[in-house]
Structures are given as structure tokens and as C-alpha cells.
């Protein structure tokens, strides 16, 4: 049993998409145009806040670093160095870095050595 396949006509070459109608933003060619621009500022121009929080984590303490204006690749590299220095796990969520445990003072010192403007926030 052969499936019915239509052969392309002479005017419609393979590899050419003939679009009769397209809504705004549905074209895959313009995907880069719709991405949000993330400013990748140097470390000395970023003001970071470091705080320890237990809200919504069933009593577990997590150190949150917020205020980044950098690309996700930069955040993952910084996350890797902070995790190795603190000896703890962590993740990047919504342009913030979360490190497991209360490492507020240690992280502030590491960020200052890396050239960031970091402050300890909260009590």
C-alpha cells in the first residue's frame, strides 16, 4: 500500500516555503528579534544583594543572590564557582542564584574578590 504523496510542481521548489498568510511573530526567521535583550554589564557595574531565606522551602535555608544584569551563560559560570567554593548545591532561577545553606558572608567575600558590588541583605 502506497501513501499518496504529491510531487512538487515546477514553480514550488523543495526548500521554499510558500506562505499565503502569516500572523505577526509566527515566522521562525524572526525568533531572535523577539528575544528580550539582556544587558551583560561588567561585574563592577552590578549591584548584588545576598540574603538568606527560608520562605517556601520547608525550613531549609537558602542563600539568594539577586540583582544580576547578565546573560544566563555568565550566571551558570558564576554558579559553578560559588558552588565549589561553598561546597554546596545550587541553581539559577529567574535571574537569581540560589545556593543551599547559609553562606551569606562567604559569598559576599567571594563576589567582592571577583569584582562585583555585593551587599549582605536581611537580618
Short note summarizing the structure:
This protein is an alpha+beta fold and 123 residues long. Helices cover 20% and strands 20% of the residues.
Description:
- The protein has 123 residues and is an alpha+beta fold.
- 20% of the residues lie in helices and 20% in strands.
- It has a domain at 43-120: Translation Initiation Factor Eif1.
- It has helices at residues 72-86, 104-113; strands at residues 47-53, 62-66, 90-93, 96-100, 117-120.
- It has a 5-stranded mixed β-sheet with strand order 3-4-2-1-5, covered by helices on one side.
- Strand 3 (90-93) and strand 4 form a beta hairpin.
- The longest helix is centred in the middle third of the chain and has 15 residues, at 72-86.
- The radius of gyration is 24 Å and the shape is elongated.
Give me some keywords for this one.
123 residues, alpha+beta, Translation Initiation Factor Eif1, 5-stranded mixed β-sheet, 20% helix, 20% strand
Topology:
Elements (H helix, E strand, L loop, with lengths): L46 E7 L8 E5 L5 H15 L3 E4 L2 E5 L3 H10 L3 E4 L3
Parallel strand pairs: 1-5
Antiparallel strand pairs: 1-2, 2-4, 3-4
Secondary-structure content class: alpha+beta
CATH structural architecture of one domain: 2-Layer Sandwich
* Strand percentage: 15-25%
Number of helices: 2
Amino acid at each position: 500500500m502506497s501513501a499518496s504523496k504529491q510531487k512538487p510542481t515546477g514553480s514550488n521548489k523543495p526548500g521554499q516555503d510558500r506562505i499565503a498568510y502569516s500572523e505577526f511573530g509566527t515566522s521562525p526567521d524572526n525568533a531572535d528579534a523577539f528575544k528580550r535583550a539582556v544587558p551583560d554589564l561588567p561585574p563592577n557595574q552590578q549591584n548584588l544583594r545576598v540574603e538568606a531565606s527560608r520562605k517556601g522551602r520547608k525550613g531549609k535555608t537558602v542563600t539568594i543572590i539577586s540583582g544580576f544584569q547578565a546573560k544566563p551563560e555568565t550566571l551558570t559560570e558564576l554558579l559553578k564557582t560559588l558552588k565549589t567554593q561553598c561546597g554546596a548545591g545550587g541553581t539559577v532561577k529567574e535571574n537569581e542564584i540560589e545556593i543551599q545553606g547559609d553562606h551569606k558572608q562567604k559569598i559576599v567575600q567571594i563576589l567582592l574578590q571577583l569584582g562585583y558590588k555585593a551587599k549582605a541583605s536581611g537580618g
